[in-house]
Amino acid sequence: MENANSSDDSKYEDHRERLDRSRDLTRDESVGTPRKHWSSRVLHRIGRVSEHAAAGSIAAGAVFAWVVFGIVAGFP
Asked: Biggest alpha carbon distance in the chain?
């Protein structure tokens, strides 16, 4: 039975190591990374915002508002 427990412990340790590596890869890179240029951090932040589902709806609403404004202002 002791062998089964050590097997479970090794599986747990493997899972924990993979989880730690995953967290390192997906952590917020805009915090505490002075090596990256500010423009790189801005682009990554824009990418994180634009990947949300509502981003397309907001962009479509902005385009619609711009078209309505153009029509009201008399833009050809």
From this structure: 82
